[in-house]
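Entry:
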Amino acid sequence: MRLTLRVWRQHDPEAAGGMTTYEVDGLSPDMSFLEMLDTLNERLTLEGGEPVAFDHDCREGICGACSLVINGQAHGPERTTACQLHLRAFRDGDTIDVEPWRAAAFPVVRDLVVDRSAFDRIIQSGGYVSVPTGAAPEAHATPVPKSAADSAFEHAECIGCGACVAACPNGSAMLFTSAKVNHLGVLPQGGPERETRVLDMVAQMDAEGFGGCTLAGECATACPKGIPLTSITAMNKEWLRANRKVGRD
């Protein structure tokens, strides 16, 4: 299998970037997209060139590190992570554009690597629960209704990859933030910080420079873990409730 890759190369955040074309041959349809990039980098290294920088970690669709825009789509043509995308999704001889996430809050570090620390700061602002000291409580010490447990599990699937931001025409982080807010907000353990959590996390999201949400829906379409668009609606209701109760502007 032979593919033509047009890859975004950018030496550092201040440098001007651009697309560079590479021909990659001898590929197997069963290779993952990242394995194909590994093959390209091995060749570039042997030729004395600079390998393409890209984020990766678990390569099992769990960590959310593999942030690539492939042919204009976050994570590529299938609803999965880039590490779980296989070359059988393309045809022999295809030309594929590979770019980093495009969002003001995700500045490019090098080539395909972007700085997603804005997500970390959003979580740090409120994505936690009060933990009493002492021995760990029994698992069933605090009953959790099944509907709440199901909702918490659904939102906990968010891996923080940033595909929602990359797919959104406004560069909004509402789907990510709503997943983190709703994950803890529906559980009894998240009750003490319920109001401050949503207010602080939304405020931090805005401070990071993410765009506003207009419910275009591209975020939910691109999300590899299927976080629903209704998650944003639930967070908006939670924010209004918390704002009335706490009385913040």
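The chain has two domains: 3-110, 117-246.
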